[in-house]
Amino acid sequence: QLQLVESGGGLVQPGGSLRLSCTASGFTSDYYSIGWFRQAPGKEREGISCITISGISAYYADSVKGRFTISRDNAKNTVYLQMNSLKPEDTAVYYCAVDCAVVAGTIFSGMAYWGKGTLVTVSS
After folding, report:
1. How many CA atoms are closer than 13 Å to the CA of 27, on its beta-carbon side?
2. Do the Cβ atoms of 80 and 71 come closer than 8 Å?
């Protein structure tokens, strides 16, 4: 049974920071790329970051580039998303997913296997 568990969300003021974690079980995460996605109320799910199996290459959506950093610790089966300079428009439920790809600058999940998500609210 494959499981992904996101954590680290919460309420933060604009300009603040949060670090999200995605911990996998039931499979070896170093066999897969891992992506972070988010969905704001009333909007489509957006791919925001993708990290390769090796962790050497990372990709970001324009909306978060320069503010968010993805990293992974394969020994812990965990992928992180460090979020800095948060804006109210970053408010969303954040999901991680196994297998991601970048097509024409857009990040997609190939397997569409998601965790339950963690809520990030950016508000003053």
Report:
1. 16
2. yes
HSE-CB for 34 with a 13 A CA cutoff: 29
* 41-71 pLDDT per residue, tens: 999 999 999 998 777 789 999 999 999 999 9
- d(Cα 17, Cα 99) in Å, to the nearest integer? 26
DSSP for residue 111: E
What dihedral do alpha carbons 7, 94, 59, 114 form, nearest 10°?
Answer: 80
Q: How many helices (H) and strands (E) does the chain have?
A: 0, 11
String of DSSP letters for 50-84: EE-TTSS-EEE-TTTTTTEEEEEEGGGTEEEEEE-
pLDDT tens digits, one per residue of 21-32? 999 888 766 678
